[in-house]
């Protein structure tokens, strides 16, 4: 199953991954905004979310006053994210784009480029990651930053078959049971996501989505960001539900005083 199809099929269920999606939108935005304020002060930034999904980060950051542009490879998720933004009265520019073509697609630069929720490990080789990071750099204005959040694969088992339970969700009179199965073959693993819908009868219905991930380590990702030209690349733990990798694009002469804290 392609990444596009995986997320197209996941779009209507995605919020169920979170015990309380609305609370996660607020909490994640507050966590990211606190870090932004430390690095840039209280100014509201222009932010490009290159893996927006159904809008988990984009919606919250826009609600806090940031000027958000967002894209994703999945047309179904972009459509839902746009609907969620309209329902909240938020002005976010949404479009469908592969993160590996972000610069050509958006044709502008931003204060901050973000890719959260372990999006970049859908790219299965170092070469694909370098291509994407190069696009992120081209979308980042001089002195601006790039923020990526990922799983810490180095701290987990990367062998065999693993079951990852997500729990039980109740919505609209339906009880959903969620879990993932990971099956490793070297550094790449097959992921299968299960949503079992129990409506109280004798039978249940199951939605199954499949994709692949590259269980790439954070040190490798930082190395690749440096390789494409980001500077001051750092790992930040304990500030978000996943580890953060933060880098910046070198400032133009005379601009460093404004963004030197990056």
Supply the CATH class of the largest domain.
Alpha Beta
Strand residue percentage: 25-35%
For the largest sheet, list the strands in their spatial order.
Answer: 3-2-1-4-5-11-10
**Total of helices:** 8
Q: Structural class from helices and strands?
A: alpha/beta
Task: Tell me the CATH architecture of the largest domain.
Answer: 3-Layer(aba) Sandwich
Radius of gyration, taken over Cα atoms and rounded to an integer in Å: 18 Å
> CATH homologous superfamily name of the largest domain?
Vaccinia Virus protein VP39
Shape: globular
**Main beta sheet:** 7 strands, mixed
The number of distinct structural domains comes to 2
Secondary structure: number of strands: 11
- CATH topology of the largest domain, by name, is Rossmann fold
Uncertain parts: 253-262
Average pLDDT for all residues: 94
Task: Detail the topology: elements first, then pairings.
Blueprint: H1 3-10, H2 21-40, E1 46-49, H3 56-63, E2 67-72, H4 75-87, E3 93-96, H5 102-106, E4 110-115, H6 126-139, E5 140-149, E6 161-171, E7 174-185, E8 188-198, E9 204-214, H7 218-228, E10 231-236, E11 244-248, H8 256-259
Parallel strand pairs: 1-2, 1-4, 2-3, 4-5
Antiparallel strand pairs: 5-11, 6-7, 7-8, 8-9, 10-11
Brief summary:
With 262 residues, the chain is of the alpha/beta class.
Structure notes:
- The chain has 262 residues and is an alpha/beta fold.
- The protein folds into two domains: 3-153 and 216-259, Vaccinia Virus protein VP39 (Rossmann fold, 3-Layer(aba) Sandwich); 155-214, S-adenosyl-L-methionine-dependent methyltransferases (Single Sheet), CATH 2.20.130.
- Helix content is 32%, strand content 33%.
- It is built from eight helices and eleven strands.
- It has helices spanning 3-10, 21-40, 56-63, 75-87, 102-106, 126-139, 218-228, 256-259, and strands spanning 46-49, 67-72, 93-96, 110-115, 140-149, 161-171, 174-185, 188-198, 204-214, 231-236, 244-248.
- The strands form two sheets. The protein has a seven-stranded mixed beta sheet, sandwiched between helices.
- Helix 2 (21-40) packs across helix 3 (56-63) and helix 6 packs across helix 7 (218-228).
- The protein is globular.
- 37% of the residues are buried.
- The model is unreliable at 253-262 (pLDDT under 50).
């Amino acid at each position: 199953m392609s990444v596009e199809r995986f997320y197209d099929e996941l779009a209507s269920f995605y919020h169920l991954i979170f015990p309380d999606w609305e609370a996660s939108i607020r909490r994640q935005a507050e966590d990211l905004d606190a870090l932004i304020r430390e690095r840039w002060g209280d100014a509201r930034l222009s932010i490009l979310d290159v893996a927006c999904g159904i809008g988990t980060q984009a919606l919250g950051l826009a609600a806090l006053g940031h000027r958000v542009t967002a894209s994703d490879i999945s047309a179904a998720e972009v459509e839902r994210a746009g609907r969620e933004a309209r329902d909240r009265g938020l002005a976010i520019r949404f479009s469908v784009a592969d993160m590996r073509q972000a610069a050509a697609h958006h044709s502008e630069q931003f204060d901050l480029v973000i890719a959260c929720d372990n999006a970049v490990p859908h790219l299965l080789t170092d070469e694909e990651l370098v291509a994407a990071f190069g696009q992120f750099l081209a979308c980042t204005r001089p002195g601006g930053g790039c923020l990526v959040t990922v799983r810490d694969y180095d701290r987990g088992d990367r062998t065999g078959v693993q079951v990852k339970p997500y729990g039980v969700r109740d919505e609209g009179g339906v009880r959903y049971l969620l879990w993932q199965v990971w099956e490793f073959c070297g550094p790449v693993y097959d992921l299968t996501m299960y949503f079992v819908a129990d409506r109280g009868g004798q039978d249940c219905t199951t939605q199954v989505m499949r994709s692949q991930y590259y269980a790439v380590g954070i040190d490798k990702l930082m190395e690749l960001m440096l390789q494409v030209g980001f500077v001051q690349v750092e790992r930040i733990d304990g500030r978000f539900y996943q580890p953060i990798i933060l880098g910046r694009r070198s400032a133009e002469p005379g601009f460093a005083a404004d963004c030197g804290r990056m």
